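Before we proceed, please read the two lines closing this message. Tell me what the token row says about the fold.
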Amino acid sequence: MHQASSSPQADFANTDFNRKPWSELTRDDLVSNFRAVRAATESLTRGLSAEDQNLQSMTETSPVKWHRAHTSWFFETFLLNPFANGYREFEPEYAYLFNSYYNGVGRQFPRDQRGLISRPGITEIAAYRQHIDDHMLALIEGCSGEALQEIRQLVVLGLNHEQQHQELIVTDLKHGFSVNPLCPRWIEPEPRPTTMERAGELNWHEYAGGIRHIGTSDRNGFCFDNEMPAHRVFVDDFRLADRPVTCGEFMRFMDDGGYREPGLWLADGWNWVREKDIRAPAYWIERDGRWLLYTVSGLREIDPDETLVHVSFYEACAYAQWCGRRLPTEAEWEVAATDQPPIGHFADAGRFHPGRAGTGNGLKQLYGDVWEWTATCYASYPGFKPAAGAIGEYNGKFMANQIVLRGGSCATPAGHIRPTYRNFFYPGDRWQFSGIRLADGP
């Protein structure tokens, strides 16, 4: 089994720009947080070869090198070009190579061919990032008063955008490594404890129905536009499981023929199972009658008490149906999460794998470990208005045919998540760190 050359030690926790009101973010705050976020991205690439950084294993993923360049392109396009006097682009052709989907600012190189961009190489991309860093720091440090106010929100948006791509670096590289029969390690495995507490039975937390508020209209702190505005929703009485589903619990679904029983599946889900010959969650490998799991630390036996990860919305729905339960709506999830601090197992742990099932009282693992599928289709909130210009393409254009996930994962940077945060993916996607929390009622 190919060994890891080194493990990334990104300091994802050294940021506070999402915890302060806009009015309290000073120029020094922006400088220090810009440095921290950009450095965290680079630390993720430590030990990765040029070949590693150019992997693209499917259309939905992108090479590490592309992520590093695209996040730089974002600052160049939306801050340096319009606000930095006399700024000259590092390489004008990068505007085409590293634009993701912003039609308002120009054409994009085909997404499914990003892995064919062998040049510029990682040395040139590093120089590009340094060029952007130098000019961004000069822009921030040279601003004050109204000028600082004008760029502040875009800087913080760019930092949150880069944190999203830090997570994508982890998920996309893991998928790229997973197709290699050598099962390469990116991170050295941690020693497993000799004694481990077993996962207990699911407990249920009850919530009274009524009119509630979800989303946010607080413009003093950062949020993405799809979290706005705050609005009223009605929820019935419901119950929420105290923890996500474990691998062992899902194995029982598999052993009971869950992947062979059409009555458990949505019609699209059953078509997906048959067309792709799905028999287990992503990264599960059957050898000699036993299931193994591919992780960023290599291949190992599945721990039945660890949190299930890398399942699609279709699998989550089928499992819930098999249990006689359901998935929570995003409103129910947010009602339960509102009073819970966003503390959990995030990317700052450096393991990029969910932990074992939480024990003890109260809701566990609501934040971190795995993104939790909800039963809610991704759409705009009542009164949603995208931002003017190309920046308005950030979220609004994707509000169709996708499903909302909540809570963050073991690959989400610490400090990036909050109760109102809405992630979204297509129902068949499962290369993300996605899992299941069950709901019940009314």
The chain is about 30% helix and 10% strand. The radius of gyration is 22 Å. The first strand starts at residue 204 and ends at 207. The longest helix spans residues 145-178.
